[in-house]
Amino acid sequence: MEITRANQFSLQRLRTYPISPRLAIAAGLVALFVAVPLVYIFIRALGAEPEAWQRLLQTRIWKLLSNTLLLAAAVTSGALVTGISMAWLTERTDLPGRKIFRWMLAMPLAVPAYIGGIVHLALLRPRGGVIPQFLESLFGQPVPTPSPLGFWGAAFILTLFMYPYVYLLSGAAFRTLHASLEEAARVFGRTPMQTLFQVTLPALRPGLTAGALLVALDILAEYGTVALLRYETFSSAIFVQLSGRYDRSAASILSGILVALSILILWGELRLQGQARFTQMESNWRPAPLVALGKWRIPALLLVLGVVSASLLVPFTVLLIWSIQAFLDPQTMATLFRTGSQGFGSYVWNSLWSSGAAAVIAVMLSLPVALLAVRYPSRFSRFISRLCQVGYAIPGVVIALSLVLLVNRALPFLYATPFVVVIAYVLRHMPQAVRASESALNQLSPSLEEASRTLGRTSLQTLIQVTMPLILPGLLAGGSLVFLTSLKELPATLLLRPAGFDTLAVRVWVWAGEGFYFQAAPAALLLVLVSALPLSFLLRREQIFK
Amino acid sequence: MTTLEVRNLVKQFHGSERSAVNDISFELSEDEILALVGPSGCGKTTTLRLIAGLERPDSGLIRLNDRVVASDSIFVPPEQRGVGMVFQDHALFPHLTVFENVAFGLRGRKPDEIRTIVGEMLHLVGLLPLSKRYPHALSGGERQRVALARALAPRPILLLMDEPFSSLDADLRTEVREHVRGILKSMRATVVFVTHDQDEALFMGDRLAVLNKGELEQIGTPEEIFHESNTRFVAKFMGDSDFLRGRVTPNGIQTEIGLLNQLVDLPAGTSVEIALRADDIDFEIDGSGNSLIVARFFRGAFNLYRLRLNSGQILHAFTDHTKILPVGARVQARVSAEHPLTVFS
Hints:
The complex is a heterodimer. Chain A contains 25 helices and no strands. By secondary structure, chain A is mainly α. Chain B is of the alpha+beta class. Chain B is built from eight helices and 20 strands. In chain B, strand 17 and strand 18 form a beta hairpin. Chains A and B meet through helix 21 and helix 22 of A and helix 1 and strand 6 of B.
């Protein structure tokens, strides 16, 4: 219901044009492909031996649950506060340099959180970190510094790399919200601050809450950062069960609980999605007047600079310095550029082709689903569309577990091939493609397709000659998102890759884990730069960067 | 020759309680323009979309040039019907130039032929110099004409137009509709034209079909519809009529503002209602008159007065623009029409 409420064109008239059986079958098959790994996890979890359940319930589950929820709550609130305040400062005040900050605040999306974590850990580690060492040499004795390890460290690092989601949402909202709404509040006697808290933010609440729930889902799925900072959550516990102890029934039980939790959050997010309609740009839109910061200009500037430094400038600079050091060291260079399948080139190539293939497949699969959901709204099509967004709620480790079990049993010839990795990317990131395709189709008036029909084209010809060319930018955006997130995907790649299939993400993780920071840096830097390309394409499409 | 025949057409949308189109039948001859007019939600656009094949009827029959395109057992998809359509939002393909838009419906013909036809069509609508432009670089009126040229280029059996002028500014609208009617007539096109605007319907249609709540209230020439309304709805919708109660007598109809000298075929004593338009009423200042001026609306060329009779009945009357009377003045109103008035029993 909520999804179609946002769908302005199909609301005009509930179309009863005969639904194409071909389309319904295609969308149904896509949904089935997505549903099987999900259902399978629940089957395995419920089918696990009762002793395993009992053992876990008595020992691990409660601790993991509180750890996971605590981290999700902390990072979500942190990201909300940071994201909204950064968006407000850059969109609604006379902050100096706000045009540049708008970009810099969004760019951390290109930095995987675990890479940021690696840099901050190297800088701040209690013993041996760059900063503690420097302070010790300066003062001649150890100086206590905040540790990036544990709960607070994980919450801090993850907030730094998750806030851009909220920032982009709220920035777009601040930009597009009708100025007259705020002007009305001012006329009724509210100060700018009262207006912000009593009118603007409440008006944006559904969209921002939906964004916050997506952040929470990401935290439930996060593996790299929490493992690095030694804070145990469901995801990292499942990873250990799978890779170290190889206890599949314990992993299944933990996965079942984690996915149930995620689906609950996703359900809330899907319900809110339809209400988030603030991005409607009206023709008589005009920008809201800027708030003069006055004596708060300098503190505000320092605050924004602090966020940008910690999330973008510092990681980038450190990676750059390490990379230069790597290039200056012949031994590191030799390790990096070994020939054959072990060389740097092959990591890059593996990263690009697996993420690229995932992007293409995800967009193609999303098309029938989006067409069905947007052009033939019904209970059935809504169900299919939501089912295809369930990937948001299946963390990488869980997809890996499910695919290991399923492929072993049903498709053994695929086992230990890179294709399983690609399938995992598609399953996990297809929701982004589905949403992008649906929103592109929603913006396309059905009368264009109808005009093509009355001018003698069949429905298939219309799809190819009219619909596809017109929604292509939207499809590219969806593909870029899938590509970007697949490039960063760590746990599924680590668990599913065949021996010798190394991607940039995997290499960064393995080398950094062994302490070879200089060696890891060029790969990390390249990963960030490759991610920045599709990201800047995506950002250019957003209102706030126009 | 009959181009379009619509018989007992019914369409109900899922989740709606009443039929959007309820048992509508009409016929349209070659070269004729039929205006479907009615308030929003009356089913006029649905009727149009049923004819185009964009909706499937629940029951009923649609025949185009003696070929059944929709019935209980047959449903011909829109691309095989040979109808042209002009959409409310014009629906020009934004990724194609003006030339390519007009050529879209001509696929399968020789390139020379396509060039000739598109050239002719663009010349007809006066847009030949803009053929390389994209739709976003056109004005509203130009887009409107490209949409018309595109729909007419394949020489459709029937042209359907869905509120084609509603997206244009008011001052442009009268100019464009005159131009468009000229083009349609010069092409001898058979047209079904949908509008909610009575003036536009009266102007565009050779005949009018007035729809209300999914049902066809009346079909006829503009003059018939305006002067000989069959139903109260048509009288009200097409001409802002007021309805004055009266009683039939052997000499005419006795009303509150005097005897109307019009004989009707009803037994004496029957109570009736007379549809009166503002130009059917005249009044003059009279301290002991039968009504009171409650409001005056200055309309430029004339004044529209709202009168309240002693019974509370409201009537409207025009006077010329120089005759200005104060609100609150008592006046004597009378029926001044010299043509027969429509009477409903």
